[in-house]
Amino acid sequence: MIEIDTESVEAHVRTVLRAVADATTVHAADAVPTYVRSRSRRRLGPSIMMAACAAAFLGAVVLVSELRDAPPPTVDPLAAPEGGRLLVAGKTGSKAWALYGADNLKETKGTPCVTLVVEGARKATNLCNLEALQQGSSITYMKTVLGTADRNVLLIVFVTSEVERLALRTSLQEVPLVVDPAHPSGIRFAVLEAPSASGRFDLTAILRDGMIKPATLMWGPPPKDAPPGYMYP
Amino acid sequence: MIDVRDPQAAEEVYRRLRPDLLRLANLLTGSEAVAEDVVQDAFVGYQRNAGHVDNADGYLRTSVVNLARTTHRRSARERTRRVEAVTVTHIPEYDETWAVLRALPYRYRAALVLRFYEDMSEAAIAEALGCRPGTVKSLIHRGLARVKEALR
Predict the structure, then answer these.
(1) Chain A nearest CA to B49, separation (Å)
(2) Interface contact A215-B91, CB threshold 8 A
(3) Which residue in B47, B50, B97 is closest to A12 by CB distance?
(4) How does DSSP assign chain B, residue by residue?
(5) In angstroms, rounded to a whole number, what is the distance separating the alpha carbons of residues B44 and B70?
(6) Stated pTM of the model
(7) Which of A25, A50, A215 sits opposite B41 (nearest CB)?
(8) What confidence tens digit (pLDDT) does each residue in A199-219 have?
(9) Rounded to whole angstroms, how far apart are CA atoms A69 and B110?
C-alpha cells in the first residue's frame, strides 16, 4: 500500500508510465514487416487477420531457415507440386533445390504461388498470393540457409513488373529474372547465392520509368558495430 | 512522404519508430505480447497506405491507439484465460500502480497514457479516442481518481 496525495497523483502516474515504458522489452526484430503485405486487397478489418498474414510470411522465412536441420526426407525431395511448373533449379552448398510456379495450391490462400523444394526437407515451402504480397513494394525476398559446411544462403527475390532489371550493386552485373510461363506479366524471380557469413546482398533495381533503386537483402546477426537498440532489418 | 518501394527507406522508418511504438502499445494494452502484435499490425497497415502518408510517426501512433482499442475489445474474454507478458519495473510502488492502471477500463487508461506519457492535448486525445474533449477531461479526472482510490 502506498500513500499519494492529491497533488502528486498526476506526477506519480506520469513517473510510473515512464518507468514502465523504459522497462518494456524491446526485442530486436527478427524480420522487418516492410516486406509483409496483406494477402488480399480487401480490407482485412480484424487485426488478427493481418497478424496472421504477417505470421504466415514470417513463418515461411523461419521455416526455410530451419530446413537445414530437417531430418531425412520421407518423400521425393525434388518432387514437383501438383500442377507445378519448374522455374529454376540448382544446388547451393550441399543441397539441391528447385523453385516451381503453381496455382491454387491445396491448403493455401491466394494465387499464384511459388514452391521451394529443398533436398532433405520434409516438406516444401509455399509462398502464395504473390501479387498481393508485393503491394506497395516492387522487391521482396525470402531466404534460406542451405548446406552444412559452407552454410550458403539461397535468396529468392520477387520483383514486380515495375522493375525492368536487377543488377549486383558493386559490379553492375545483371541478375537474370525468371518468368513463370503461366503468368508472363506477373511477378518475376531472381535466385541468388551468397556465403552465409557475408550477411547481406546489395542489388540495384532499374525500374521501367528509369529510376534506380537500391535493394539490400540482409540476414544473420546484427553487425558488430551496430548501435545499442539496433533493429535487425 | 516515404517511398515504400524503397526497402531502405521503409527499414529506416521501422528501425526508428518501432521501439517507441512498442512502449506506447504496451502502456495501452498492458501486455508486451499484445503490444508486439499491435505494432506489427500498425506497420502492415502503414505500408499499405504509406504512399498517402506524410507523417509516418503520427500515422503509426494513431494506428497503434486504434489497434490497441480494437484488440482490447476482441481479447477481453481471452485475457482472463491466457498468460500475459506484463512489464515489471522492479520498483514495488511503481509495479503496484501499474497493476492499477492495467486494471482500468481501456478508455480511462488510454486517456491517462496519452495525456501523461504522450503529453497530448485533450483535443488531440479526443481525436485519437474518437470522443469529445469534454469526455477526455472526464476520463482523465475519473481515471486519476480511480488510481488514487485504489492506492489509498
Answers:
(1) 8
(2) no
(3) B97
(4) ---TT-HHHHHHHHHHHHHHHHHHHHHHHS-HHHHHHHHHHHHHHHHHHGGG-S-HHHHHHHHHHHHHHHHHHHTTTGGGTS-------S-HHHHHHHHHHHHS-HHHHHHHHHHHTS---HHHHHHHHTS-HHHHHHHHHHHHHHHHHHH-
(5) 16
(6) 0.47
(7) A50
(8) 677 888 888 888 888 777 766
(9) 45
Contacts of B56 in chain A (CB under 8 A): none
pLDDT along chain B (152 residues), means of 10: 58 83 91 82 81 82 89 55 59 83 91 94 90 94 92 78
Placement of cell 543441397 in the chain: A95
Q: Give the Cα separation of B65 and A28 in Å (integer).
A: 22
Whether residues A33 and B22 touch (CB distance < 8 A) is answered with no
Interface pTM, i.e. ipTM: 0.89
Number of A/B CB contacts below 8 angstroms equals: 155
Amino acid identity, residue A221?
Answer: P
Q: Do the Cβ atoms of B32 and A139 come within 8 Å?
A: no
Nearest in space to A18 (alpha carbons), one of B43, B18, B91, B122: B91
- Residues making up chain B, counted from first to last: 152
Please tell me which of the candidates B4, B87, B116 has its beta carbon nearest to residue A13: B116
Distance between CA atoms of residues A191 and A156, nearest Å: 5
